[in-house]
């Protein structure tokens, strides 16, 4: 079905010293890592945390900028 693509991918990975895998939130949450927007998400439980991570709030609100800076100290 894949015409040797799986074997080719395996060979490429086997010859690589570094590999990066980009995934969506689903693989993380299945592993127990909390997401941001789900029912128990970081931003759901703490809506202010989302504001500290949103460029629009950051630009518009000096208090958000100060709090974002403090969080990163």
Automatic annotation (TrEMBL):
UniProt keyword NAD, yes or no: yes
Database matches in Pfam families: SIR2 (PF02146)
Key words of the record: NAD, Transferase
Signal peptide range in chain numbering: none
Molecular function as annotated in GO: histone deacetylase activity, NAD-dependent; NAD+ binding
TM annotation in the entry: none
Domain Deacetylase sirtuin-type: 1-73
SUPFAM superfamilies xref list: DHS-like NAD/FAD-binding domain
PANTHER family: NAD-DEPENDENT PROTEIN DEACYLASE, NAD-DEPENDENT PROTEIN DEACYLASE SIRTUIN-5, MITOCHONDRIAL-RELATED
Species of origin: mine drainage metagenome
Name of the molecule in the record: Silent information regulator protein Sir2
């Amino acid at each position: 079905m894949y015409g040797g693509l799986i074997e080719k991918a395996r060979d490429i990975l086997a010859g690589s010293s570094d590999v990066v895998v980009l995934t969506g939130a689903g693989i993380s949450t299945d592993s127990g890592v909390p997401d941001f927007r789900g029912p128990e998400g970081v931003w759901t439980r703490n809506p202010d945390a989302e504001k500290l991570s949103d460029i629009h709030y950051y630009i518009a609100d000096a208090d958000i900028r100060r709090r974002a800076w403090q969080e990163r100290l």
